[in-house]
Amino acid sequence: MNSFCELIPFLTLCREYPTREWNLTDFEIGRPLGKGKFGRVYMVRTKCEPKYILALKTLYKSEIIASRVEKQTRREIEIQQNLRHPNIVRLYGYFHDEKRIFLMLEFAGKGELYKQLSKYGRFSERRSARYIDQMADALSYLHSKHVIHRDIKPENLLLGITGELKIGDFGWSVHAPGNRRMTLCGTLDYLPPEMVEGKEHNEKVDLWALGVLMYEFLIGKPPFEDRMSVQNTYRRIAAVDLRFPASFSLEARDLISKLLKYIPDERLPLSEVLKHPWIVKNREKTKESV
Ligand code: AMP
């Protein structure tokens, strides 16, 4: 099927929403914020009052088509435009011209979380707990809307102007149940055993990824990483070969162990993550220091 057909009816339909029809001349274009797979992201300001600052993401239609991700892109937009949560980048609207699709995104003022992690090597327990707390809250909201994220990793997380975590990428998310086949590209590090083994999966994949994320925040690298061999990473994930350095607090160790369970149903539910002593203790400390 011609891929343009995938995109056009959807975009035409969405011209009704939001009520205002936008185009590129409505914005003053500022500095580039980054480069994605299908185009650049710019800081922009609306010309009309009140002058909102936004991140404008451009996606080249030709590249979306060449990569055969029309459906995925459409799903990403559909999902993100319906989400409203302080720890999820808001999609305010979108428009297109002949060559490009433009996404009007909430501006995440402090940029990529990944850069911070690379800069500092690892995060303190308090900072990691704050992020995991925010992440668990955002995932709990997503799951209540029957959305599975499926691609949680530091590269997909941004930071708001007050340093709050924001999930910024919905490229792999699906409406539950998410048992469709995925092309596994990129890193295996965040995939749960059921996905590396090609089995059916559900929203519990995000609980596993939360455990991996927590480990990476505290140590600076994911728990099953093996830079020499993908097969070895695969084996370590399937065997849940989890090793903790001595520096890990017992509470952090406890939470990670409860998330990284081979059997999806045995993973600690998000409501319990939010009540876990490691999260609560660090939440209290953060409150005291404000
Ligand atoms: P992406 O195409 O989503 O991978 O975005 C490419 C880069 O643009 C990211 O790595 C960020 O540095 C930047 N970026 C994307 N979205 C935003 C946003 N909402 N606010 C600030 N920077 C962003």
TrEMBL record:
BP GO terms, sorted: attachment of spindle microtubules to kinetochore; homologous chromosome segregation; meiotic spindle checkpoint signaling; regulation of cytokinesis; regulation of mitotic cell cycle spindle assembly checkpoint; regulation of organelle assembly; response to mitotic cell cycle spindle assembly checkpoint signaling; sister chromatid segregation
Keyword tags: ATP-binding, Kinase, Nucleotide-binding, Serine/threonine-protein kinase, Transferase
The enzyme's E.C. designation: 2.7.11.1
One Gene Ontology CC term in the entry: kinetochore
Cross-link (Glycyl lysine isopeptide (Lys-Gly) (interchain with G-Cter in SUMO2)): 153
Binding-site residues, ATP: 37, 57, 106-108, 155-156, 169
Source domain of life: Eukaryota
Sequence similarity: Belongs to the protein kinase superfamily. Ser/Thr protein kinase family. Aurora subfamily.
Name by which UniProt lists this protein: Aurora kinase
Lineage: Eukaryota, Fungi, Dikarya, Basidiomycota, Agaricomycotina
